Structure formats: C-alpha cells, structure tokens
User: Fold these one by one.
Assistant:
Number 1:
Amino acid sequence: MCRLLETIRYENGRFYNLKYHRQRMDYARKMLFHLTEEIDLDKTLLKAAKEQLPNENSGLFKCRVVYDSRIREIRFSPYVLPQIRSLRLVKSDDIDYLFKYEDRSSLNRLFALRGAADDILIIKNDLVTDTSFCNVLFFNGKQWLTPEQPLLRGTRRAALLEQEQVETAVIRTDDLHHFTKVRLVNAMIRFIDQLDIPMEKVSRAFLNL
C-alpha cells in the first residue's frame, strides 16, 4: 500500500490551512483506497502536539503526517525558511505527482539535475509546473499567475486561489519572458514570506538545457 504525506505548518501553538489539508487527504484516501470516512485530523494533530511539544508554545515547526488508509506517523521538527536564489529548468514528460506520495524518488532524480542552481523548475509537455517542493507564482508586473496544471495541487496554492490573490493560467516555456519574478509557496512557505527569484536567475538556467 502506498503511503502519502502531508506537511503542515504549526506556529505558536496553531496549525494552519487544515481545511485544505483535510480536503486533500480525504480526496487521496477516496481515490486510492476507496475510503469515504473522514479522518479527525484536528483532534489527532492536537494530541500529537501535546505529546511531542508539551512545552513549545512559540516557534515554527513542520508537522509531517504520513498516512494511507489511516494516519501512520506524525512528527514535528523546527523549520527555517530555505534560501532559493536560482532555478534550472528540467524537462520530464513522464513525471506524475498527482498525489503527495511519501516516496519522492521521481522528484529527487530530477532535482539531481539542478547543476549549480538551488532548485529545479519542472517542465512537462512544454508546460511549467512546480519546483521540486513548491508551487510557483509568476508576476507579470500587474498580477500573480500560477500554472493551471501543477504537478501537485498544493494547500497554500488552493488557499491563495480561493482568496483571489492569484489566478491560474496556462504557462509555457515560451511565456517565461513575460514575467519579472517567480515566487515559491508551499504549506510551510507563505505568500507573505516573499521567497522570490528574479526571472533572469531562471532564464540563464533555461539556456543550459
């Protein structure tokens, strides 16, 4: 049985975006295991936090939830925002990460091709998708756009779309010159963290393909 993963932001005693994590977990369990009953994620996480972080009422932690038909493991670890300053475009028409699998070997193989860049920007069938661990938002000087067909429909991305802070668009490699910067987001990295990369740090990598 394949195992799946949720990474949840836990900061100052509070879990964030649980609505979207629950939705993704319920969908994955329904599609992969034909299960329709919901996991009581809130109660389970609060219990785990009390057991593992009894004296931690402040600070930022990454909560790692491994599950299949049920939750198998919950672990907390301190989190520091990564430093990503450059991306290399890597093509893979076969990559499939519709569900957030614990096994990241297919992504790791692509990540190994990053060369001198800090991370990769994955191109599938000429469409821009995600980095190795983040959804991407592109700024064209007026608005933020995110690929209509990402590899993984992230929880932060879902929240930003619902809040109408970003819009979806079909973004091809030939469209990248229309943007000034790319912003990385995921469950741990917020929009307001402004983890931005100037497009010239992507374009130069693209020329190396």
Number 2:
Amino acid sequence: MKIAIVGATGEVGRMMLDCLQDFDIIPEEIALFASHKSAGTTLYFADRPVVVQELSEQAFDKFYDYVFFAAGGGIALAYAPLARKNSTLVIDNSSAYREDKDALLVIPQVNGDLLKNYTGIVANPNCSTIQMLLPLAVLDKAFTLRQVVVSTYQSVSGSGHTGVETLEKQRAGSKDKGIYPEIIDLNIIPHIGVFYDDGYSAEEHKMRNETRRILRNDEIAVCATTVRVPVYYGHCNSVYCQFEKKVDLALAAELLKDAEAIDFKENSYMTPLALGFSNLAHVSRLRQAVDDLSLCFWNVGHNVRIGAAANAVSILKTHLELQGD
C-alpha cells in the first residue's frame, strides 16, 4: 500500500501519522507533502525518517492508494482533483467537499457502508459533528431522532495552530485579539465562522447540514450554538435530543456502552484535560430531558484525533475492509 499526506507538517497531518500507527496501518511507502517553507523537514513514521517534499502538481503523477489532505480548503480544492485521477481514495479533512454531492461525507461507524467499491473524494465531517453523531446515530436507530439542540465548547486548536499560539500569547499578557473577534483568554466567544442572514454562523450551519446528510434524514431539526473557549485541545457538546419513540433510558445506556468508538461513563464524566490521546467520543451525564421522548448528554472528544485524524484513518481502514467483502 502507498499513502500520501498533504499538509504533513501541520497539526492534523502529524496526528494522521500517529493515528496510522495507532490503527496498525504501516504502508510499504509513505510520501509527505507540505508548502515550500516546510519542505525538507524530516518527520518520523514507524521509527523511520521521512523527508517532507514540496507540494506541486507533479506530486500526483505517481499512483497512491490513499491520499490524505490536511492542508485547508484552498489546497484541497486545487490539488484533490489531481490526486483523485491517480489514486484509489482521497480523504480530505477540510470543509471544501462536505457539501459536494459528488463526494462522500463519512463517519465510518455511522455510514461507512457508502465506502464499499467507492473511488473518489471522501470528506471528513466537522470535528464537533463527528463526536456528536457517533452517539446520536446509536440512539437514532433505537428511538428515531427528530430534533437536536446542541451548544458546543470548542477548543482553540480547532482554529489550527494559530489558535493555540493566540491563546498562549494572550495567557502571557498580549492584548492582541489574533485570529479571534474578541480576546479568547479567560473568555468565551459565541462566534465560529461568518454569520449568515438567518443569524446562524457557518459552524452552526455545518452541524445542521452534516447531521442531516450523515444520518440520511433531511427532516431532523438541528439548532446549534457554537462557542470558542480558552481550552487548548478537546471539544465538548451539550446535547438535547428528541425522538419519535418513547426513550428507555436504561436501554440507551446499554446501547452506548456497547457502541464502537464510544466511551460511555454512567457515573462520572470526561473533561478536555483528561482526554489524553483518546480516539473515542466520550459520552456521560445521560439523563431524561423534558419528557419521555427526550434525552440530554455531555459529549467530549479530542478534536485533532476523533474530530480529524482518527476519523480520516478510520475511513481508510473501513474502505480497505469493505473491499475484501
């Protein structure tokens, strides 16, 4: 197997290298690409050095089984079509192809069946959407989801390394707002992405649109409020969900305990600081909401892992497994 990673020196690109090893996927050949500024950097994979190459159109003259993009939407739009011509699968972490009907939008544990015999571009969903839909998909199968109201608490690394640097500088006393509309240190900002005419932000629209597409149900009502918080890593969601069928709380707990890629805590809860290197969506504080048709729960995930790199590598792994069926 031959794999390429575009944006390999960035936070998500480096994490993809870690997650490939976590999933025990060691290709016979791996190529790393980045900007001119980062070309020549040496990274290590499976205890061997790999020199980062400068990204160019000629990079994809060679065949790769799988090409990961972790370099932003502009790069993905420019280079993913080139990679697609000479590879089996292109997996893009940006938002560039999430609403493209010619590309797939996949969380393997939810709609991974779409990957069978597929070649082309697969988009990684929004980080907060991934960790939320892992439990919601389980509950949807049991009780039929009708409505979701979610408030997010998203860490600064969700803005990339620049977000981390911005918080670090402000922690040290800087009053420069950096990439945010307000100071983020000791503050929270209910503003992620541009605001649309309906009053919702781009991030809030993503969560609504992606939820409907991945669960294959355009009738699900989704109301999201997305908030940036002064945490380095780890996104949190406070989720209210309403169903068509009466909810059995004990059954819901059992289903979540047994679900793939979910860590369910019945009598405790997860926080971002406690996440470590987890590739799971953590669910806790499961409880009845306003009536017997509704539930609330607390949802935490490592945004660079389950929200990005781990989901991307899981797409590769699932695609490989399905081709053998």
